[in-house]
Design brief:
The protein is of the alpha/beta class and 366 residues long. It contains twelve helices and 16 strands.
Length: 366
Amino acid sequence: MDDVRYMREALTLAEQGRGSVSPNPVVGCVIVRNNRIVGSGYHRRYGACHAETAAIANAGRRARGGTMYVTLQPCNHFGKTPPCVDAVIRSGVKRLVVAALDPNPKTMCAAGVLKLRAAGIRVKTGICELEARRQNEVYFHNLEFRRPFVALKLASTLDGMIADIRGRSRWITGPAARVRVQNLRAKYDAVLVGAGTVQTDNPRLTCRIPDKRHPVRVVLDHSLETPPGARLLKCPGRTIIFCSERVPARKRQRLSSARVEVVGVHEQKRDRQFWLEILAALDRQRIASVLVEGGAQVAASALKARVVSKLYLFLAPRILGAGKSFSAGLGATNLNQAIPLNEWQTESVGSDVLVTGYFKPIRNAE
């Protein structure tokens, strides 16, 4: 039981790096001696020291003879920092408890464990493994599927309407739900919308939580109709606009700047190949996760293309009747074509209900 308790301390610590370490995983570490935490650390930002070395520095000589708990297996390679395995050995700990093994081939997983055991350190793995893998679901997805993790955020009435008949959607949900959305923006590397959302709502798509980074703003704009005065073009952070490669260069240059990149893509329809091209382009820019925020056409096409891995659906306790449904564009004609939501759960968020769940992802070649 002590192993579980201390590992959960490490998992809680790891969350403090959320939004600052991508595309690296969040990692937390505690060092325990005589049933007392004598050192702790987490991966604070991309390129900074890893959780293990931070905890070792915090513990100093008190680490000797202790037990280290770390949420992801220590690396065994030179990257932006030296191998953590070597630092663990030098620290003098006698036992290492790991939540999840690292599938990244660069970390040389098997060799790292052997090296630790050869140094006389007892290694135990799999403590709170499911929690650790879920905590780093973006990292594990990136390694397995070689593309960014995509989450879809929707706010709808009980009958599935995300806007009224005129396209107005402010405000379907209450203030608490809107605060939660800001927290989601802090968690994901990029926020993606369609051109219709930009023209109708003129959003900023920034993160309004103090001291949190702004996500990269991504706009799907086939004809490049985003107005130069759009608020998202003037806000802090980067903006990427994907348009048809047929859009003339002079029209692209009208919006291009130091903070706005206009990218032409081949696919004309928002089918699976279109989405895979978009995700591949974002992956090349080291964007590990994308939060799709709207509107109805973008949501339906992403779902239909089967690139969405996670759903955040905020349900407002009201029925609209006539309006815009986020699922109307899926084209399903019978229940066998329904897309199942797995591992779903619900929670109250102010006056609304948040449904969270997972879709089974499909590999690029499928």
